[in-house]
Amino acid sequence: MPEDVSLxxxxxxxxxxxxxxxxxxxxxxxxxxxxxxxxxxxxxxxxIDLEVHEPxxxxxxxxxxxxxxxxxxxxLMLLGHTDVVPANGDDWQHDPFGGELVDGQVWGRGAIxxxxxxxxxxxxxxxxxxSGFAPRGDLVFVGEADEEGLGGHGAGxxxxxxxxxxxxxxxxxxxxGIPIPTAEGLRLPVITAEKGVFWCTLTVRGTAGxxxxxxxxDNAVVKAAAVVERLxxxxxxxEIHDAWRRFVEGIxxxxxxxxxxxxxxxxxxxxxxxxxxxxxxxxxxxxxxxxAPTILEGGTKLNVIPDRAQLQLDIRGLPGWSVEDVExxxxxxLGDLAPDVEIEWHSVDPASTSPTDTPLxxxxxxxxxxxxxxxxxxxxxxxxxxxxxxxxRLGTTAYGVGLFSTRLxxxxxxxxFHGVDERVDVESLGLSAQLWDxxxxxxxx
Length: 445
Description:
Elements: H1 5-18, H2 33-43, E1 49-53, E2 61-66, E3 76-81, E4 101-102, E5 105-107, H3 115-130, E6 139-144, H4 155-161, H5 163-166, E7 170-173, E8 187-194, E9 196-205, E10 209-210, H6 220-233, H7 242-251, H8 255-261, H9 267-273, H10 277-287, E11 290-298, E12 304-305, E13 308-317, H11 323-334, E14 341-349, E15 352-353, H12 359-367, E16 376-382, H13 388-392, E17 397-400, H14 410-416, E18 423-425, H15 426-444
């Protein structure tokens, strides 16, 4: 792979950002076909077989494959999504869809989540094919749509309709590989598990009336405000599960910090007092099933007391939690308001996990020694959903990993997901491309 590969990844990333494939969750958003076409132009080279699948107009996913020589050998997939979440440019220092290169950093929505990795995967795939790479098992790159909408038109559609075509033994996707300095050397978190997704809408019932006579009315909006307050005040129990314990022990935090992070009776107070906001949010989310009210709608007309209001909740469940457990938690949080609230579930997808004593895990540990000698990989739990979960259902071992420069701190990295001023440095883009190249050669040759 050429030394200046970071420049190629940079230019591709800027183009993907500029295409503004914004997924607001609706079926007509995303327009990922724009980025699929760009990736096609990059990967239309000898040695790569290409397919594009478009379940709905504009919602295209690209599959690029280098066929293996041995059908019994393990296969590896590089999975990158091509859509991004919305961004309000008024809050950014630079245009979120400008893809500007400023002081060695690419700015824009998707620079971290996850067009950076998608770009580096595509460039690595092209160079592998150009070098005559002849793997034992298949190497597959998928640039998929709709990850930010829970994957129904992307990975979910592919695994439902083309399971035999996209089935793979091993997979890497977002997001890990942020170097964390410790007294014993760098530690690189690798996602081995992710929390479950339980999205729902609460319908709060009231009684309609005239807005000019609000006394003693049963106002659904007022009641919904009380529901939001109950949910905001509710403190779910902390749970210390295996992935979190292994992360804390692997990082080697000082005993006073590790003790608090691993003690369910102390971690809440510790997170509330921790100055490092990124770590505090991660630690809390990794040890609690969380409830976030995100959208509230109510009322039909300015002078009508509303008879109903709707509240959408983003709930992320820890490993082992079922929808019944989550519903019981909501009932407990709502208390005497519960009888006036109906729950409609939109997505019920429990947590998923992959083992670490595998050939791919050991290969990742070996490859990262090149740029970071003496470093160690540590398992980590993703508090957000990735499309790895669809492939785990097919029996795939899946990890979230990338490789980043020491210029990017874990604290900064954690706060940029779906946040403002998202950006990534050029060195990190090159490191990720080198990671994919090294994994393919070590794991498949």
